[in-house]
Amino acid sequence: MAQQPVEQQSPSKGKRAPEKARTTEAQQPKGKPAKPETPAAKQPAAMKERGATTERGATTEPGAGKGRKTPASQESATAPGANVSGQPVGAPTPGAKQQAQERRKGMKTPPPSAKAPPKATPATAGAKATAAPPAPASPAGQQNAQANVGAKAKKPDPQKVQQIKSQHANFRAQPKPQQVPAVTFNQSRRIEGSERWEGPQYEVFRSYRPERHDQGWYRSHYNRVELIGGGYYFWNNGYWYPAWGYDPSAEYYAYDGPIYVGHRAEPPDKVIADVQAVLQEMGYYRGEVDGLLGPLTREALTAYQADNGLTTTAAIDQPTLDSLGMG
User: Residues 114-162: pLDDT tens digits?
Assistant: First the structure.
C-alpha cells in the first residue's frame, strides 16, 4: 500500500505519451490537414520521393550525403507538401487521382520550366499571311481566263462606220515607199502561220502562192485587173490579189496576199482606208489613213482580232470585216 503513489508518478508510463502526440501535432504545417496514411502498396513510392525515415524525428533527404540527417521540423519548412508542379508529394489523394486521370486524357499542363510555343496574335497572323507567297493559278482559273477571250472586245458604232465609208467613196491610195516599204516577189513565200488558221474562210490564205504572169495570162483568167496604189491587182471571188508581172514598172505592193473586200468588189485601197479609219476611231490604229496595208495597219488588225476572239491573221479577212460591220 505504501508503494502505490510512487508507481503513478513514473515518467515513463504516465505523461510522455501525450507529450509526444503534442509534439507531432506541432510539427504539422499550419493551415493544412494531416496527410492520410500511405497505403501499404504505395508506400515505397512515397518513401522514394520523401526519403526513408532513419530514426525518430529525422529523415534522409534525396541527394544528401550518406548518414546526413535533417530534423523533421526543417523538412516541413524546406519541403512543404507540394512539388514544383503544384501536386502534393506522397501518396495520391482523391484530388490527385482525379488530376492524374485528367492528365492521362490529355489535360496535363506543361511544367513551368517548359517553354510554351508563342501564341499567334492578330498582328503576327497577318504578317504570316502577308509573307506567304501567292498560290499558283489553278487549272480552273486558267480555264476561266481562256473563257474570257474577247472580254476587252470593242465594237464599232454602225453609224460611224457608214459615215466613214461615205467619206471614202472616191478614195485613191498613193504609193509611199518611204513611209511604207514595198514587198518583193518571192515565189516560195507562204503566209506565216496560215497552216494553223482553221475554217473555210481562211482557205485562200492557206493555199496562196505568189505567181508571176504577163498581161495576156491575167486577162484570159480574170475579167478584172486594175492599177491600185502603184500596183496591179486582179479580182477573184471576193478577194484582191497582187498581179505580179502584169506590168513590171508598176509593182508597188505593201502586202503580198489576199485582201477580202466582200462580193461588191470595192477597190482594195478604199476598203483598207475604211478599216484604218474605224480602227483609228476605236484607238487601235495611230497611223495615217493612206489605204496601204503596211506594218502599222497589220499591228492594229492583230490587236483588234485578239480582243474580239478572232484568228490573228494581221490581214483583212472575212471574219474581221464582218466583225467591223463592213462585210
Answer: 444 455 444 444 444 444 444 444 444 444 444 444 456 778 889 999 9
Dist CA 283 CA 300 (whole Å): 9
Tally of residues, the chain: 327
C-alpha cell read off for 132: 506567304
- Tens-place pLDDT, residues 18-35: 444 444 444 444 444 445
**Where do the DSSP E strands lie in 135-200?**
none
CA angle 43, 17, 30 (to 5 degrees): 60
CA R_g for the chain = 53
Q: How far apart are CA 225 and CA 268, in angstroms?
A: 12
208: nearest Cα among 258, 246, 252: 258
| Complete DSSP assignment for 242-311 | E-TTS-TT-B--S--S-EE--TT---HHHHHHHHHHHHHHTTS--S---S---HHHHHHHHHHHHHTT--
Specify the higher pLDDT residue, 288 or 16: 288
Q: Give the HSE-up count for residue 222: Cα atoms under 13 Å, Cβ half-sphere.
A: 21
| Helix %, strand %, coil % of the chain (to 5) | 40, 10, 55
Retrieve residue 107's grid coordinates.
Answer: 489535360
What CA–CA distance (Å, rounded) separates 256 from 185? 8
- Amino acid type, 61: E
Q: How far apart are CA 267 and CA 227, in angstroms?
A: 10
